[in-house]
Design goal:
This protein is mainly beta. It has one helix and 55 strands. A hairpin with a 6-residue loop joins strand 14 and strand 15. The longest helix has 10 residues.
Length: about 725
């Protein structure tokens, strides 16, 4: 049996201070010590490396991302997940006990930041946590912070997977390009108890995963939670004893986050550091957080500091002027996050485009809008920012924006919005202004542009008026590909079409149809797409050739007797081509090449003789002839027994089956016909309605030979 290696403190008669020593134990020894309560509170399980997990590249949505949430935090494992087999994989030493085991190392294609320490290797520990730097088999949890292991623990408690039950005791995981997902589904507790189950999930990321939330790097998600403690941690029926711990711990005794500890049933909660709470308080909750910040610190906190060129007392703008306002809020403490927001009183009628980098150590809030005529007057913008220090601090600053009405209308851009590949379009701004400045820095009322988004600002007196925005997008020149069978045998024409549909077609043969039917030749097509851009395909060569007609004759021709030698001669017609290959094949007597094929037939039977001929164009033709070899004599039976015992069940005239169109008539003793066939193949098995007895038969072969006599039917 393979052994589990872990560090255990010596006890008993050992004199002096306790010494740590590595001891090799078999799994039964380890289990017995745990059940007896003789394992030390702290120990380390060591395993060799296992095979790396599969990495699934997760598609990220375009644009921003969600921040997680209670209603949709749980991600059901699918076929991209790996199920860790609790019978073989948990303990890499080979025990497969499903208790206190670990799986890993799991290589991460991203860096996970745990309070300033980055990791790209993780270990999935059965007891409700993921650790870094080493495996963790400790089943009795500790409160955070500790100087012990580095871990993120959605539910650090004594999970026991050993009862293998469908849909229960599952630990599954997947690795994506920016996250590790681990799901504990319906897991029980030590010692092999399944009366209460817990279901929870951990996601860690590099801060770019939308399931966690952009800017966050860890998510704990819970479904139903029903137990807290195993019996080896002094729990009784899943409760009491050492509480379960929920949080994250760097392992330096300083940096940590703790959402709470739990040791009993119920929904009561006393805060992260109060008395242990009821486990059902976790039901359906989701914790989304960021371990790149420093937690557990009591250092003095300074509120966010605002800086900007837009923080003057009053800002004067005009109706139809493009306004851009930027404010930065800095959190003086390293690692803190700042969240910025704003209010406008009275509100603007103009549409406001907000770009907000919150939460971040330096949060940037950018507002862009174009005042309308109803916005004429004074509006007060108040910017507010809060940090996540202890305690959280808030600061705010207000700015007055005066909007003035001007009679001049804003410039209007006109022009084509589609530019074919390699070409530009001309945009024109309405005239009469002192100065024009396009968004590409061109200074004129007319501009030649390629694909992009454009607007122009026109000066009139003290106001700078902004035009409408126009988007010029590139329409790539189509690259049609001709599809169809370019080589046809049998003289059939080729049908050519394109790989996609276009607005218009001009084929090299003059056709304007979407598809053409053509013979041998070279063809191309020029197409125009819906944007008015054109492109020409590569030329294709079409070849249409006739198929040869395969045929041969035999000498002697027709049915032969055993011992006959037959020579078959190729008489195929190439139909205008040149036959370059002649191949003979048969069912069982071999084959050959060349214009003749000879074989001596020794055994009666029917033989398929096939000739395949191929022309220089690659076209083929086949012909199959059935060569019949009949026996010289027919064996006449005197008795048969249709009792389905597999022996002599049918009325068989051995050799007759090789003759085509052999007729058989059978009569009873009164001259009544009881069976007849015009092509008998030794298949008659009389039913029970035909009594035992002697019957008269007449068997006639195609060559005119006739056999008569009596046969006895026995059951």
């Amino acid at each position: 049996m393979k052994k589990l290696l872990y560090a255990v403190f010596l006890t008993g008669a050992f004199v002096g201070s306790l010494q740590a020593q590595s001891v090799n134990l078999t799994w039964p020894q380890y289990d017995a010590m745990k059940a007896a309560g003789t394992l030390p509170a702290e120990f380390h399980i060591s395993y060799p490396a296992v095979a790396p997990p599969k990495v699934v590249v997760q598609d990220q949505p375009k644009g921003g991302g969600g921040q997680g949430g209670n209603c949709n935090c749980w991600k059901d494992p699918d076929d991209t997940y790996t199920t860790i087999d609790n019978a073989t994989q948990w303990n890499a030493s080979g025990f497969g006990n499903g208790d206190d085991g670990s799986y890993g190392p799991v290589n991460l294609p991203f860096n996970f930041n745990l309070y300033g320490q980055t990791y790209n290797v993780a270990y999935i520990n059965i007891n409700g946590n993921v650790s870094f730097g080493t495996y963790i088999g400790t089943y009795s949890s500790s409160a955070f912070p500790t100087t012990g292991p580095s871990m993120v623990a959605p539910f650090w408690a004594d999970v026991d997977l050993r009862p293998v039950v469908a849909g229960q005791n599952l630990v599954q995981y997947k690795v994506t390009s920016n996250a590790l997902y681990v799901n504990w589904t319906n897991v029980g507790y030590y010692n092999m108890q399944m009366d209460k189950l817990c279901t929870f999930q951990l996601i860690i990321s590099d801060g770019t995963n939308t399931d966690v939330g952009i800017g966050n790097n860890a998510s704990f998600c819970y479904k139903t939670m029903q137990w807290t403690t195993g019996s080896a941690s002094q729990g009784v029926n899943g409760f009491g004893g050492t509480p379960a711990t929920v949080g994250a711990n760097k392992g330096d005794g300083v940096n940590f986050i703790q959402f709470g500890r739990f040791d009993h049933a119920g929904t009561d909660y006393n805060g992260p550091f109060g008395a242990p709470g009821g486990i059902s308080w976790l039901d359906n909750k989701n914790f989304v957080f960021n371990t790149t910040t420093t937690g557990g610190s009591n250092t003095q906190n300074i509120p966010p500091i605002a800086s900007s060129t837009s923080l003057c007392d009053t800002i004067d703008v005009c109706v139809n002027e493009l306004v851009n306002l930027d404010v930065n809020f800095l959190a003086p403490e390293a690692g803190q996050l700042t969240t910025a927001s704003y209010t406008i009183v009275p509100p603007l009628n103009a549409t406001i485009t907000e770009t907000n980098t919150s939460p971040a150590n330096t949060a940037n809030l950018h507002l862009q809008f174009i005042p309308t005529i109803p916005d004429t007057g004074v509006h007060v913008i108040t910017y507010t920012a809060s940090d996540d220090g202890t305690p959280a601090m808030t600061s705010s600053v207000s700015v007055a924006v005066r909007v003035f009405y001007v009679a001049a209308p804003p410039p209007v851009i006109t022009g084509d919005t589609v530019a074919c590949a390699g070409q530009g379009v001309v945009l024109t701004a309405s005239g009469g202004y002192q100065h024009y400045e396009w968004s590409n820095n061109w200074n004129d009322s007319v501009v030649l542009v390629g694909p992009g988004t454009y607007y122009v600002q026109a000066s009139t007196g003290a106001c700078i008026l902004v035009s409408n925005t126009i988007v010029v997008h590139e329409a790539p020149a189509p690259s049609p590909v001709i599809e169809g069978v370019l080589f046809n045998c049998g003289g059939n024409p080729a049908v050519l079409t394109t790989d996609t549909t276009y607005n218009s077609y001009t084929w090299s043969n003059g056709s304007h149809d979407p598809s053409i039917s053509v013979g041998t030749g070279t063809y191309s097509v020029t197409v125009t797409n819906g944007e008015g851009c054109s492109g020409t395909s590569a030329s294709v060569n079409v070849n249409s050739a006739n198929s040869p007609t395969a045929n041969f004759i035999g000498n002697p021709n027709g049915t032969v007797f055993p011992g006959a030698t037959v020579t078959y001669t190729n008489t195929s017609n190439p139909n205008g081509g040149t036959i370059t290959s002649v191949v003979w094949s048969t069912d069982s007597i071999g084959g050959g090449t060349g214009n003749t094929f000879t074989h001596q037939f020794m055994v009666p039977g029917t033989y398929n003789i096939t000739l395949t001929v191929t022309t220089a164009d690659g076209c083929t033709g086949t012909y199959t002839y059935q060569q019949v070899v009949v026996p010289v004599e027919i064996v006449i039976p005197n008795v048969f027994s249709p009792n389905n015992d597999g022996e002599n069940d049918a009325l068989a005239f051995e050799g007759a089956q090789y003759y085509p169109n052999t007729s058989l008539s059978v009569f009873n003793r009164w001259g009544q016909e009881v069976y007849s066939s015009t092509n008998y193949k030794n298949t008659w098995k009389p039913g029970k309605d035909i009594a035992e007895g002697t019957y008269f038969f007449i068997l006639k072969l195609i060559n005119g030979k006739e056999y008569t006599g009596n046969v006895t039917l026995l059951r």
